[in-house]
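Try it yourself: sequence plus zinc ion, in.
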Amino acid sequence: MKRLCDLTVLCLLLGLPGEAAGQGQWEQPALGDSASGNPEVLFTFDDGPHEGYTPIILDTLKRHGVQAIFFMAGWRISKQSTYLEARRAIARRVLGDGHVIGNHTVNHARLCTISKSRAEWEIDEGRRLLAELVGAAIPYFRTPYGSRCARLEEMLAKRGIRHLHWDMDPREYLHHDSDATRRYLVRKLSKLTGRAVILMHDTQVTTTRVLPFVLDWIAAENVRRRAAGTPQIRILSYADVAREQLAPGLEQAASSAMRAISVQALGLMDRLLAPLVAHPPPRTSQVTAF
Ligand SMILES: [Zn+2]
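Structure, out:
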């Protein structure tokens, strides 16, 4: 099938901000400054899909009306195993539930230490596997381990891809401690004044236990903040991020590009960009906190 992010217009529209600032570390905040002026968070889940935990996370997100980005490892939806079909179905559900799928390479590879040709294969094949399975573009990419090096940056630039980093990492995948994960996130969210990308893993039972608590905490905190007249925590979706990338007047170009592509592509791009066309980006001062 045609891979949509090979289309320059779409790649540009969905490109992420941030220029290389050096080796080793990616820029933070990962998504720049808060557009609303309020604290803003974007939830991201890496390493899945997991046959047991990802559906639980999807149920939790649905209950709270939250859209997230899932950075998937291609081997999980391609390697023969008892769970292969379940994982493939879950990946399709992720998209069907309104979330976005990102490429996290095929084998969760260390892209700065393996050979160049192997690293390129990990990026390209990871994107191809996911796009072919779900019949949709895979606009986002996250390098495993947050690796960064000049060679990787060149590979990503050549493909019109940008790495989406993170700002809050509770490291639940290392310690598997639900209480420590809760404490970390509540402490960080309590003090957040700008924008933050949260990194969690849908391959961890800890994430399934902590996510409902954190979303309930944000809801309750916002009730308290509303009563106190203080800035509430806004949960971002991929559409909010993509909307920011659209310069004034580009909505029409996006719409035209959508209609020039295949019928299958239309379904996907409409889903991605229709909210942007139907609801022009608000001015910062008009953003309503929630
Ligand atoms: Zn990972």
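One thing you can check immediately is this: The beta strands are 40-46, 69-72, 100-103, 140-141, 195-201, 234-235.
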